[in-house]
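[09:14] KT: can someone run the structure on this one? pasting the chain below
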Amino acid sequence: MNIPTFHTYDSLESARDEWLAIESTAISYPFQRYHWLEAWQRTLGDARGVRPLIVVVEGSPAGGKALLPLGFWREKGMLVMGWLGAGVSDYRNALFAGEFESLELLDLTMRLARQNGADLVHLDQIPGRLSDGKPNPLVGGHLHRLHYMAHSLTLPIDFGQWLEQRTSPKERYNHRRAEKKLGEIGHLEFVVAKNKSERESFTEAMIGQKRERYRSTGVADLFEEAAFAQFYHLAAASDDICPHISALLLDGKPIATHWGMADSGSAVINANAAYFLMPTFEGGELGRHSPGLVFLLHFIEHLAEAKKQVRLDFTIGDEGYKEKWCDEEMSLYSWHRGISLRGRVAAAVDSIVEKLKDGPALEMVRRLRKWRQRRRGIAHLGRQG
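[09:31] RB: done, structure tokens below
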């Protein structure tokens, strides 16, 4: 197969001008944009010793370009090549300004990995579609479909009518009752951060609530890695990234928060998608009144009434509340190839594990979850956040 023309950069800063030029015409998710990944590299990337390799590919039939934001790091004694953005980028992909053959890009990736002495190439969480709904040029029959999906919601024109169609009378009663109970405790208000100061304040609240939830559920605390919190604070302060951060306040104190993004270059949501990334809420006594659910419905209503979004993207994961509220699913893919003997063994083991996860048992689990979702209703979803 012919390898297209390409050139590389060994830092994000050196690639900046060309990256932004490609970005201006490419169809992409915000996770592949320069400012998002530059904030990641300055925090998590540097802390993890990631060495960037930004690849710009030319020679598509339409005369376009593709940009692959790749990097190298050490993991389990191996040198691994993969996407930049691990840990914060729910969709990982190339930027495409033109049409390309998936296999030629993957062959190029393998060639560069070998030249750099990598043991393993691991490209994961590749979305099946681009942000405009068209098929992802990187996805072909040689990629492996992951065992979990991404979920999104087409925002309603009429929120009240949509809620009535989507929920039972009992569910709507439980929602009104939860909001009433919170309102009896204090003044309840849904707020979108309007400036850097509010974004910083809500970001700090989100991190605190996440850490408490990790402790209470026994889940590993991502924020134990200091660079993880540093990333969210840095991104929250950036108008180029366009964070969309909001909270449900009780007497001025956040009891549920969300750290997300708008698919736009502006701090005001005015594009066709918003991304639901880091939701959380208070537990304990307040948690009994489903603050996560109360927040979520206010959030959806806010986006619907703004009439500036078409879609709310809940991104990756098969959590119950996503299956309840979303109306569209998207498959995700990975490409795992070993180069050295150790890398080939690691790739083979990971492939076996992923196939087991995607077997008949997974379908049974999905069906059971949907059945439980219908039985337990809206109150359960609220406690899931």
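[09:33] KT: thanks! The first strand starts at residue 6 and ends at 9.
[09:34] RB: yep, looked fine to me
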